[in-house]
Amino acid sequence: MSYLIRPYEAADRDGVNRVALAAFGQYQHEYEDWPAFSEGIGRMADLAVQADLLVAELDGQVVGAIVHVGPGKPRSAIFPDDWSVIRMLVVDPAHRGLGIGGDLVAACLRCAIRDDAPAIGLHTSPIMTSALRLYTSLGFTRNRDLDPIRGVPYGRYVLPASELQAALDRLAR
């Protein structure tokens, strides 16, 4: 089963939003006011306006997506302006375990290198065990607690530029 990681195209909109909702669906009982939270999740494709939205395509279908926010682009105040930021790593539950998540993260790491960012950051929650395991295996470290999002705890994680190539090497194994 071979998939392709590529830049988002307008025709991907519904597929990206569908995968985002499917990926976050397993957490619906964790978040307060899931209907309001899922409404935002279901608009993931809107992030393509001001960031790099990358998709994983398999047999013509979107099966994963991730957002890279480059230095100087609009972002949450929890991240310095000169960092690259990873947002919304999502993989269709039916296609997990194929390496799609790791390849999407690798694409963001390459974007951070391209943009000469001093670091790449992200925020995630302990409930997202697979994603958190991936990030920490690549060298991301938790450097700040964040306010809960709709009742779910979050933390900020960072990987300095000096560690980006090592993280890519780990993903290539």
Automatic annotation (TrEMBL):
Entry-linked CDD domains: NAT_SF
PROSITE patterns given in the database record: GNAT
SUPFAM superfamilies: Acyl-CoA N-acyltransferases (Nat)
Transmembrane segments: none
Residues in N-acetyltransferase domain copies: 3-159
Matches recorded under InterPro entries: Acyl_CoA_acyltransferase (IPR016181), GNAT_dom (IPR000182), NAT_camello-type (IPR050769)
KW Transferase (keyword) present: yes
One Pfam family, short name: Acetyltransf_1
GO MF term (any one): N-acetyltransferase activity
Keyword field: Transferase
PANTHER family assigned to the protein according to its UniProt record, in alphabetical order: GNAT FAMILY N-ACETYLTRANSFERASE (PTHR13947), LD18367P (PTHR13947:SF37)
Protein's name according to its UniProt entry: GNAT family N-acetyltransferase
Organism: Telluria aromaticivorans
